[in-house]
Amino acid sequence: MTSYAAYLFDMDGLLLDTERLFMVPFVEMAVREGIQRGEAEAFYLRLIGTSSSVTSERLKVFLPAHLNATEFEQEWRERYEQLLEGGVPLRPHSRDVLSALKRNGARMAVVTSTHGASARKKLQQAELIDFFEVVKAGDEVSANKPDPAPYLEAAAALGVCASECVAFEDSDTGTTAAVRAGCHTFQIPDLRPVGQPFPELEQEIEQDLAKAALKLGVFDTALTS
């Protein structure tokens, strides 16, 4: 296995299959308010990887003027939390990769734009929290992705340099942050606008987390789905 000081993971859309779950109530509510489904879906895709504060600001611009954006967002998040009560779905091979890294003594952290309480709750529900020494959340960093601060600060919390770490991301925003921090970065896209080009960074693009792990020597052979 290729030796790195630590392995840094985004959460939503990378470890957890929650981006789709978050999209469902947003689109339903937007359509209810007279917004076209395609327009709502396209707007949501542009939110992926952004912080809660950025989401709130963009929502104020996107929604019709007669709607209270704060109330809309509150209902949206409440409905999302209700969906999560039915279980937090995982992205393909998340647990396999984390388990293999743990067996090899790897140090791991989560680097997410989600607020800390919500992030830890989801990781706990998904039974992934114990894999990580550090969870660095969006309200716990000096600046949010695409700024490199979340990755720099997560690495520092582990006592290592970001340039000695591997980062795994799904969004362009997160990938930009990881590359700027100096991490060896894998981008594993989840929800993405059709035809949208990937940012021209020094990231490696893989279909799923297991393929990235295979390239790093975490597995000897490819995992089947």
The tally of structural domains comes to 2
The name CATH uses for the topology of the largest domain is Rossmann fold
| CATH architecture level-2 label of the largest domain | 3-Layer(aba) Sandwich
Walk across the major sheet and give the strand order: 3-2-1-4-5-6
User: How many β-strand stretches?
Assistant: 6
Q: Helix content range of the residues, please?
A: 40-55%
CATH class of the largest domain: Alpha Beta
Q: Which class do the helix and strand fractions yield?
A: alpha/beta
Rg for CA atoms: 17 Å
Overall spatial form: globular
Overall mean pLDDT score? 95
Query: Can you say what the CATH homologous superfamily of the largest domain is?
Result: HAD superfamily/HAD-like
Q: What does this 3D model show about the protein?
A:
The chain is an alpha/beta fold and 225 residues long. The two termini are 22 Å apart. The chain is built from nine helices and six strands, in the order βαααααβαβαβαββα. It folds into two domains: 6-17 and 88-215, HAD superfamily/HAD-like (Rossmann fold, 3-Layer(aba) Sandwich), CATH 3.40.50; 19-84.
Keywords:
single chain; about 220 residues; alpha/beta; Rossmann fold; 6-stranded parallel β-sheet
Topology:
Layout: E1 6-9, H1 19-32, H2 37-47, H3 52-62, H4 69-84, H5 94-103, E2 108-111, H6 116-125, E3 134-136, H7 149-158, E4 165-169, H8 172-181, E5 184-187, E6 204-205, H9 209-215
Parallel strand pairs: 1-2, 1-4, 2-3, 4-5, 5-6
Helix pairs in contact: 1-2, 1-4
Summarize the structure.
Helix content is 44%, strand content 10%.
